[in-house]
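Data availability (excerpt). The following record was deposited with the supplementary files.
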Amino acid sequence: MDTTLLSKVSDFEWQIEAHGKMRVPAVLYASEQLIRDMDSKVYEQIVNVATLPGIQKAAYAMPDAHWGYGFPTGGVAAFDPQEGGVVSAGGVGFDISCGVRTLLTGLKAGALTPVKQPLADALYGRIPAGVGSTGRLNLDDQQLDQMLLSGARWAVGRGYGREADLDRTEERGCMVDAQPDAVSDFAKKRQCREMGTLGSGNHYLEVQHIVEVYDETSARAFGLATDDIVVSIHCGSRGLGHQIGTEFLREMVLEAPHYGIELPDRELACAPIESPLGERYLGAMRAAINCALANRQILTHLVRQAFAEAMPQADLSVLYDVSHNTCKVEEHTVDGHRKRLFIHRKGATRAFGPNDPAIPEALRPYGQPVLIGGTMGTASYILVGTPEGESRSFSSSCHGAGRQMSRHQATKQWRGRELIDELGRRGIIIRSPSSRGVAEEAPGAYKDVGAVVEASEKAGLSRRVARLEPLICIKG
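Predicted structure:
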């Protein structure tokens, strides 16, 4: 991106003044190098977001921002229904409620050494991964509706996990006001055999070890210490979420003129929050959030079964589970007034600061854990929300490394088998049903996740707690 198009506010904050049809400015949080590395479409898309009705304060881009569908991936925007605010399927994305769950094992890395291969085999044998992967569950219509209504609570009630897991899950495992009736029969059909599966793309399950702690106080509160083994699960609502996004985007494009909405890009299709279409989308999207929460809960159960075979001494309690493709109702201060807003986070993680009542009580004094996925050859991070994050980005932070190369470009540069062998020589075991999928997700296809999280910290969005490196990675 051309930095001359932006006004530099600080070393990690850049602004696009409102011009043309923009209702608010756009703010980008990143270092100068990360800004230069962003494709020009990020500029175009964040400007377009700033033109939407009812948008508040600014349209925001996180340090890992890159081109997306309508909204940039790494985009954040808040809308007020009292001012004609809209909800946009493109502002949530196709993988609704994609997110990360991190489990604590209570073990040190040395305990893994003698059982590393058997554990990798056990995880790969139990965790279905890849395009169109299906699990052992086959839900009927009634079970699907119950799952879409109750999320991870439904899964725990069926024996997939512990009641304590819900205390460490966003929304306590269940998104309220979900409407299974707003989800099409075809979307439900796509999901009936996909519960408890990772899917493909950038989704993964990793056994990781903590190689560096930055914030001893928060780390201690989170149960983290150097050399600890943790497990991270990154996935979302699978085929159901994608189908909901596809169907509602199409309908929103057709209906926009009837609501008097002029779209700068058809991919920004949206509807007034307080309209029949907007309300139906919100109901369906919330059902998809529950699908993702239930999916990660079932995967947690399968992880525990695999560890029981190879490392039965592992505890595997949940540190936290947080999504990064959602639209949620939250209260935030705008121009000195507390408002009820609809916060779109697409490729951006909620990052509440200390003492927010939505944070589990044991963690509340420190802030919300912010779980950042990296690549299978680099690192992931655990961050924590900051007090100033609310005023800077509606309490939002980055979500990962962010792609810097398309999947097609990656397959031209890397071969999956060679990557698996190379990472194996570095002590990272990769298990995947698709060598092409591994090539598409080559570490070199992504930005430097360390630079991304440093920018998030320097911008005041979140603060680094610990850096994790992979030991075993199950990829789709």
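Summary of structural features: The CA atoms of residues 11 and 410 lie 31 Å apart.
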